[in-house]
Amino acid sequence: MDYTTEVTGALYIGLFAIIGAGIVYVTLEIAKLAFFFAGSKRYGSNKAKDSVYECGMETIGDTNVQFNLNYYLFAMLFVIFDVEAALLYPWALAFDGLGLAGLMAVISFLTILFLGFLYALRKGALKWVY
Asked: What three-state secondary structure class fits 54?
């Protein structure tokens, strides 16, 4: 077997990735130099830029408040299950033409979805009160 085309393709992909990363790096460095030579006060950090902005008013107390991670986890699970439920809509529209292969595919999809739901339930990710 001749693997030269696969190797050549992989080398091209690697070369384009390196060139792309280089272009991003060079562009950021040019922007840094432009800000530096222009004497811009916006580049870098200062007290005003590092302060927490709350509607223009000075904050009272500590601004590093612990956010309950369970809200984030619950929202992510909602997004995941909502998107997967939306993926069932095209299957329902094409149900007649898919046959047994389509039915088996959606059964395996729903099985994986249900196992993920059971895993989240078992880990306690769906509890509101801890």
From this structure: strand
Burial of residue 74 (CB within 10 Å: 0-12, 13-18, 19+) is middle
Most confident of 72-76, 112-116, 124-128: 112-116
pLDDT at residue number 63: 67
Residues 73 and 115 in one domain: yes
Which residue reads 């529209």 in tokens? Answer: 93
Q: Residue 35's domain spans which residues?
A: 4-50
Same domain, 44 and 73: no
Tell me, what DSSP letter sits at residue 57?
B
Nearest to 120 by CA among 63, 65, 75: 75
Task: State pLDDT tens for residues 44-99.
Answer: 666 766 666 656 666 677 767 777 777 888 888 888 888 888 888 888 888 888 88
Q: Please, what is the angle between helix 69-86 and helix 95-123, to 10°?
A: 170
Q: Which residue from 125, 37, 42, 50 is spatially nearest to 81, judged by alpha carbons?
A: 125
